[in-house]
Design brief:
Elements lengths: L4 H15 L7 E6 L1 H13 L5 E5 L2 H14 L5 E5 L16 E5 L1 E2 L4 E2 L14 E4 L16 E4 L2 H4 L5 E6 L1 H7 L14 H4 L13 H17 L2 H20 L4 E3 L12 E5 L6 H14 L16 E3 L7 H20 L9
Parallel strand pairs: 2-3, 2-4, 4-7, 7-8
Antiparallel strand pairs: 1-9, 5-6, 8-9, 10-11, 11-12
Length: about 350
């Protein structure tokens, strides 16, 4: 006999709450569109009460700034703190009286912000964080995160058609006030966060997706939960770091080790000049032709390079082999007479 839909969704929500090790006052709501859908829902539903600081160092932070500035057009000031691609802005410039929007793990640059203690717990504004897959790979300070937007595909291997919005008490309180603007029903968090009918969704869910997420969360729990996710991701990153440190052909895209993402690992060839984009395309094509790796090209709006996911579902031995083959492919492309210049 099947499980009633509401019971399945409640079960998954409870599993997710436990695996994320959330504070008791934080609530989870499911929305369409993975973490990006969760961020759009959060921005539309919550931004507009205070001025906003948007921290960006890669594609997605810049995207959230663009949406706030050009689509939401709040009456209050919107400030972009951006120091360049892959570079963290000066965190001392963040105003805690403003709402703060940031990406915890910048997956298009391989740069993350794992520590949030620079932001005071007692503050006027909300922290709205695009957490994405980092939720299962980092020990996050959820007491400081008022809104956390979570995805399931890259760290758990689950479905991408819906995501989760984790709302803390201060965000829930703001949702109890009138909306700062008309919000499309599909992304209106007030419809799901202020109703007594639990759990309610803004869309008709795909129950196969919830069943798949239940399976993935049960798998994570069986391996040790969040601590397993963190440790396995750290182990994968360290294995790649050892290889890259000894390589004459590969280097990390992020120079800073303190803010370099454990997943994904973003790499680039050690080159000085030339058409790097074509070179990287040729490397990726060679690996795909040899059926070694697929879809490891950098994010399409990122500088040319390579991106490999290295979260808890990825076996360390397989990842090490992939990086070794990537090094071979880069060396092969150099030896083919590429116009790029090797620094040796």
């Amino acid at each position: 006999m099947g499980v009633p839909a509401r019971d399945l969704i409640r079960e998954v929500r409870g599993l997710l709450h436990r695996q994320l090790e959330l504070p008791s006052g934080h609530q989870i709501y499911f929305v369409p569109g993975s973490a990006s859908g969760a961020m759009e829902s959060s921005l539309w539903s919550l931004i507009g009460v205070h001025a906003v600081d948007v921290l960006a160092w890669e594609t997605f932070g810049l995207r959230w700034h663009e949406i706030i500035r050009d689509r939401l057009r709040p009456q209050h000031d919107v400030r972009l703190l951006f120091s360049g691609w892959g570079e963290l802005p000066d965190l001392a410039e963040v105003d805690p009286a403003r709402d703060v929007v940031l990406v915890v793990n910048g997956t298009s640059a391989g740069v993350w912000l794992p520590v949030l203690d620079w932001l005071p717990r007692s503050r006027r504004g909300l922290l709205i964080a695009d957490v994405s897959s980092a939720a299962f790979c980092l020990a996050l300070d959820w007491e400081r995160i008022d809104v956390g937007c979570v995805s399931f595909q890259k760290a758990l291997g689950s479905e991408a058609h819906f995501g989760a919005v984790v709302l803390g008490p201060r965000a829930l309180e703001r949702l109890g006030a009138p909306a700062p603007r008309p919000v499309p029903r599909l992304i209106d968090l007030r419809l799901i966060a202020t109703t007594a009918d639990d759990p309610v969704l803004t869309h008709t869910p795909t129950l196969l997706g919830f069943a798949d997420l239940r399976h993935s969360l049960a798998w994570l729990a069986s391996r040790g939960g969040l601590s397993f996710g963190i440790e396995s991701t750290r182990r994968n990153y360290q294995a790649v770091s050892t290889l890259v440190a000894a390589s004459a052909w590969l280097e990390f895209a992020s120079v800073s080790t303190s803010h370099r993402s454990w997943t994904p690992v973003c790499l680039r060839p050690t080159v000085r000049r030339g058409d790097i984009g074509t070179f990287c395309d040729n490397v990726v094509a060679l690996l795909e032709k040899e059926k070694i790796a697929t879809d490891i090209k950098s994010y399409h709006r990122a500088p040319p390079g390579f991106r490999l996911w290295s979260g808890p579902t990825v076996d360390t031995e397989s990842l090490v082999l992939a990086v070794k083959w990537l090094e071979w492919a880069v060396a092969s492309e150099f030896s083919r007479g590429s116009a790029l210049e090797h620094p040796a």
